């Protein structure tokens, strides 16, 4: 379960990703599809994490992995969109680490 600063960081990263994808696809002819595929899942997870759902933090990490893959692919294949893609890559890496941090800390903590 994410508590305190981890949840706050996760909420901030999800909000930043939603805004990034809104800006990225603004004016695109497939804007509605981008809203449904990218922004809606992020917004739903943002609401669930804000409400304190432990499962939402896990799924935010999984979504972060998918967004990372997409962003790296676009950064490599579309030079004109590289700035948005690199920003999405950085935010999604932060999302994965923030969602995974409590589990990593518990796994590698020193035993007393």
Q: What number is the mean pLDDT?
A: 92
SSE arrangement, N to C: HHHH
Coarse shape: globular
Uncertain runs with pLDDT below 50, 5 residues or more? none
Radius of gyration: 15 Å
Tell me roughly what share of residues is in helical segments. over 70%
Total domain modules: 1
- Going by helix content, strand content and strand pairing, the class is mainly alpha
What is the terminal-to-terminal distance? 22 Å
Quick structural gist:
The chain crosses the membrane at residues 7-25, 31-49, 56-77, 83-104. The chain has 112 residues and is mainly α.
Summarize the topology.
Blueprint: H1 4-25, H2 31-51, H3 54-77, H4 82-108
Helix pairs in contact: 1-2, 1-4, 2-3, 3-4
Transmembrane segments: 7-25, 31-49, 56-77, 83-104
InterPro entries: DUF2069_membrane
Protein name: DUF2069 domain-containing protein
Characterization of the model:
This protein is an all-alpha fold. It has one domain. The protein is built from 4 helices and no strands. Helix 1 packs antiparallel against helix 2 and helix 2 packs antiparallel against helix 3. The protein is globular, with a radius of gyration of 15 Å. The relative contact order is 0.16. The model has no long low-confidence stretch (mean pLDDT about 90). This is DUF2069 domain-containing protein. Keywords: Membrane, Transmembrane, Transmembrane helix. Pfam families: DUF2069. InterPro entries: DUF2069_membrane.
Keywords:
globular; mainly alpha; 112 residues
